Fold these 4 entries.
Entry 1:
Amino acid sequence: MVPTARILADRRLLVSVLALLAIANFIGLALVVGPIRARVRTLTQRATTASLAVTTATRELHDARQTTAGSVQAVSDLQRFYTQVLPASQPAARQVTLVRLAQLMREADLSYDRRAFAQEEPEKDAVLTRATLKLSVFGSYRNLRLFLYKLETGPDFIVVRDVGVAQGDDPKEPLEAALTLSTYFKASDGS
């Protein structure tokens, strides 16, 4: 076999050139490929961050659109509530609380003793005005429950704010119920 030292001596120029090329290759890797690899890593991280940001922004845009759609629906529902459910004015509120309640009491076979209609002064910048009716009704427990059921399930917007029931000493006497009911109407001209 030929010793390695002799091969290196005979091929010194070729070995030197190959050694220089190997060193140049390592330097090239260190100076060119290393920074490119680091740049690729940085760009990959930026792309991942941008992708997450796009996903987040898309989700936020979707949420904002749903909120806007919900707001539009809420405004529409509120306008429908003001125009179709609530009484339109103070006379309409009076009619709902007095006339409609009298009709429901007749249907439930109740009688009433006294009733007082009052309109509360609306607060500053209030959209709605509250009209309150206090009345005393007389009848059986079953009829009182029927009246309250019809009142609460009826189409009119009447809020039962207070119910007080009392019975006299004689169990055969009808129950007396003191009711406080309210409805609201849109305060258009401060009325």
Note: The chain is about 60% helix and 20% strand.
Entry 2:
Amino acid sequence: MTDIVTFGETMLRLSPPRGDRLERAREFDVQAGGAESNVAVAASNLGCETTWLSKLPDSSLGRRVTSELESYGIDAAVAWDERPESRVGTYYLEYGGSPRGTNVVYDRADAAITTATAEELPTDAIADAEVFYTSGITPALSETAAETTKTLLHHAQANGTETAFDLNYRTKLWSPAEAAAGYRELFPYVDVLVAPISDVRTCLDLDGDAVEVANHLASTYDFDTVVVTRGDSGSLALHDGEVAEQGVFEADTFDAIGTGDAFVGGFLAQRVAGADLKDCLAYGAATASLKRTIGGDVALVTREEVERVVTDEGDAISR
């Protein structure tokens, strides 16, 4: 039985050397990156059997994505799109420090994933899994992707598979109002909600502290578990009236991309293992902190490294 199945888009990430601008770059580092595959890789590195579902063009670039992801130990179960016009989404990451900041340029319109239907995907894997995960990025890609996301979440619940969903709001994909409507379409099929506090305030127009937000979301939408992430202020989880909180762990940041996905991967890996809320949050926070020290989208960490961070409570910051 697979522990965790995820569904979503994975793109090719192209990055010029640090310090170079996109307009003068002569070379790019190429890696695969996507929220749901990032979660699958993080959980796999912590001992879970994970499968990533998606749709890709039947081309060298599509195979480039699956070969890289499979090298990390996950199962890439994709529908192959044979249309000549099918494409892989890409994004360009230009690193920059203060005051310029890092810039991301997306080129993902009309990617194969935007046409993915539930009928094309191996849904038996979802029915046999412990957890099915996707994020708010996926339904924002197209009407078809939104319908497929809803169908897969419903299929998971109907087969007794726990469902997990991260709001993961992206301003370049849809407006706050569009995101709110899209989220509410999916909420009836979600058991575990991961809600960045900034996304909650931007899209769901909720005020209050993390405890108030978690309680409001749980009571309004009948989630089993709500996890509220608060950036440098750590995270909080609510389940059956129990609240657990976790600070962040200090890290020298080399590459922050994928930090939130690493947190979710660590959290879900411990949840599948039957750990309590506090332990799940701790593993999420530790996996996220380690990810910040690693280049690329994915958290190439070991369980031993995560456990060492968790054990060293002196590095925990409660804010």
Note: DSSP finds ten helices and 15 strands in the chain.
Entry 3:
Amino acid sequence: MPESYHPLRIFSGSAHPELAQEIACLLDVSLGKSTTRHLPDSEIHVMVDEVVRDQDIFIVQPCSAPVNDNLMELLLYLDAFRRASAHSVSVVIPYFPYARQERMAKGREAISARVVANMLEQQGARRVIFVDIHSRAIQGFFNIPVDPLSALPLLADYFRKPEFADAAIVSPDVGRASMAGKYAEMLNLPLVVMHKRRTSFSATETTHVVGDIEGRRPIVIDDIMAGGSVLRQVDALYENGAQGKAYFAVTHPVLLPTALQRLDADDRIEKLVVTNTIPVPPEKRHPKIEVLSIAPLLADIIQRIYRGQSISEKLTLL
């Protein structure tokens, strides 16, 4: 890294220190020292354990479960860095919280993603970096620079193998069709789109399949897997003639217990390929899950931002 009046520093909250450490190693800088404590009354206390005056700080904190604790911790660190006279603080938040609450679907609902954006900005974030956010509109909630990255190239590279020559890229719904189209274009594979109807807040039903899946191995893509409802959609694919075991490519492995149970129960699912935007603890390390590291992408982006270089070629605006 070039000498600078404002040294580059990487810090981490408690959500995913392994990812932050990997990024720091790739950038050949030491991981900053900080301490997070959860007090007996459930309050969170944070402390920056070294001088950060006039430094360019990048803090890595995906806000996966426990979402509210991780988000509050991030906000407190922003306050601590600001009060410690850091030159700038950029937030690397690979998994953005409340991203599925970006609009009023019904009257009298909160637009929670906007609330999160306001809090980050008001607490002094100079820049925000996230990966495969559920709704692209959230970028417009900010008045500061936002870098919307995608794990698509990383995940697509995994499927550049002869065994997937007869595959088809499957979008689980119309909303993910644009992302699926990028996969199909990069891999030169046909595109299939499933239409679904939401029957409740957590349940969906596939109504029909558009595209030719007959005789092809399905590669189902999505940005988030939580309860694993998308895993049930393979029924519709095999009813329409899909062949071979199904693969899933998902950026954010939230993986609630129901998702792991469905992986266990369905022998037609060969593998779930995910990234480490959020940690995958041992209890979620299912034999069918393969984790790819997002750290090289994030390290490259951080380095380009710090050096004042263009990052436009790295942005995938789906």
Note: The chain has a mean pLDDT of 92.
Entry 4:
Amino acid sequence: MKQTIVILAALLLSTTSYAQFQVSASGGYAIGSAGMKLGETQTSGGIENSYGSYGEGLNTQLRGTYFFNDSFGLDLSLGYLHGSDQTVSKVSLTGFDVDAIARARAFGAAASVVYKFNTNVYARLGALVKLGGKTEAVVYQKATFSQAEADAIGVPLGSYSETNYVEDYHGQFPLGFVAALGYEYPINTNFSVFAEAEYYGISLKRKDSEITEFNTNVVLPDGTVAVEGLYTLNNLPNGTNKTTTYVDELPSDNTDTSKELAVKVPYSSFGINFGVIYKFKKAPATTAR
């Protein structure tokens, strides 16, 4: 027992004598990996699937890393993803057009183990979680009225409705993983610059969504707005729900249109980051007496 305590004390002393803390800031761009179907493009000639990942886009990170010795350390990072637009629905048919995109606006965190192969090359491997944010869908729809619809509203044939709305999707608490391989170049004792390739493996299961903006105008054939705000957020069209809840199971006789089956959406990505590191002074070596 006494021998074990001595060994543990020696290990603690050796790590404490080296202990170094550093902080870093970086920015980069990621492309989707393992892209899944996100939507469709439809024309009079047919329908085509569109694939991607909401993890694609610009990202920034702040990290703190504590090294116990020359090789091993623990890393905690906070990041923000400003996702690129992904096609959800693109329809171009006679009298009917839709342009719907979705994009991620997400905050995340990761805890990783860091291993230095040498002074310059290192690797990270750890767990990744999403702390907050949303997947934002932005939709434009144009629908030409039939003769009966035009007569009912009191506008000439060739008039159309023009709808714009925004719907925010929120997900359940996810858990993924992160892996990175980087190269660090020291500038002086305290500062270094680095570049790294980073992989995120994570998917989000939808929890709920909410329409946050909605407006429908009636437009004449010459482009003049005849009726502004025919439908708004406070006066949604019949069959349109302001909020939707996503569940794993629905009864066969379900009539509640505000509930839908849950789906998983991909956030996985592969990116390149560039940044700067600031190293605090190492703990002074302790002399045994």
Note: Residues 21-279 form a domain with the Porin fold (CATH 2.40.160.20).
